[in-house]
Amino acid sequence: MTAISPEGRTFGVLIVGAGWVAAQHVAAFTAHPLARVVAVASRSLDSARRLVAAAGLSDVASYDDIAQGLAHPGVDVVSIATPQHLHCEHVIESARAGKHLIIEKPVANSLDELRRMQAAVRAADVKTVVSFVLRWNPLFRELKRRMSAGVVGRPYYVEADYLSHNGSWWSGWNDARTLQGGVSAMLVGGCHAVDALRWFASDGEFTGATPVEVFAMRGGYRKGRTREYNPLTGSWSDDAPAMEYDGLEVALVKFDNGAMGKISVNADCIMPYRFPVRVFGDRGTIIDSRVWSPTATAPPAWVDVPGVQPDSSDVHHHPFRAQMEHFIECLVQDVESHCNLHDAALTHEVVFAAQECYLSHRPIELASLR
What we know:
Layout: E1 11-16, H1 20-30, E2 35-41, H2 45-54, E3 61-63, H3 66-70, E4 77-80, H4 87-96, E5 100-103, H5 111-124, E6 128-130, H6 138-148, E7 155-163, H7 173-176, H8 185-188, H9 191-200, E8 211-219, E9 228-230, E10 235-237, E11 248-255, E12 260-266, E13 277-281, E14 285-287, E15 290-292, E16 302-304, H10 320-333, H11 341-360, E17 364-365
Parallel strand pairs: 1-2, 1-4, 2-3, 4-5, 5-6, 7-12
Antiparallel strand pairs: 7-13, 8-11, 8-17, 9-10, 11-12, 13-14, 14-15, 15-16
């Protein structure tokens, strides 16, 4: 399927899902002059209707079945914002219907699901973008621009940490906390850190490095416990639904360009959400929003880079509008996104390799997964 010319019309969007993130997808597309939300499908018809009403939309259909939404007239793009364990089914069905796709992260709960989704997208020749929204974060965009200009030289070591006490304060927790629904802390939310690691291990402005080897360990204290901290209110609860997997995961990653990286995912931490990033290059260093580059300043000094830091887990804080603008532009220009499903698969491979490493207790070469 080729891109649709915007001349004389807009891209019709079907939103699949009606939760926290889906509302941000609706807002992003509503703000775009070349996009129009034409339908919302959810597991609950009432929730679909509530989302339409909350967004103040008119002439938007509501469905409780994705097949009905896909059959709605004028749907060109499908935005998958359902719980992660439903993504595979919804992506394959939408691709077979010939629709371009926005896919929330994580895209799949297993390597098998991931490969089936990729095969469906290839067979349908549709375009995709995965919501690793930090690629459109203003600070990250500026850091990548400076890296591409050679400010820190060739990156040889990168660190990214996902520090978030995920819990029942989040509306998606009941699905995500289980082994079947969420799989692991690294998959549920920590995949953002994995993607950031890939992103900053490459000095190209719009490229991420390809991982080739992974070694990981897991631990922490919170698995199975019902005592939970709420970082939004600073309060505690003793009867929260328990997380079924380990809350702490640490992985080392080697990339095809020679760079190395370290990821930590800590869902056990008692603190507000934070997302630290460190990049060490052969000409300089990045620590969060500060750059040390002896060739760029005289005398050398830390330089503060302007931009919005990724310091909130609230989806209202995330740059969905910039992501959707990017994807509409990809459709108009008939080009692939730098964050399409096939690129995002490389990020997910690290997560699934970590799962394999926990069983084998040895480094995993990613060539074995491809």
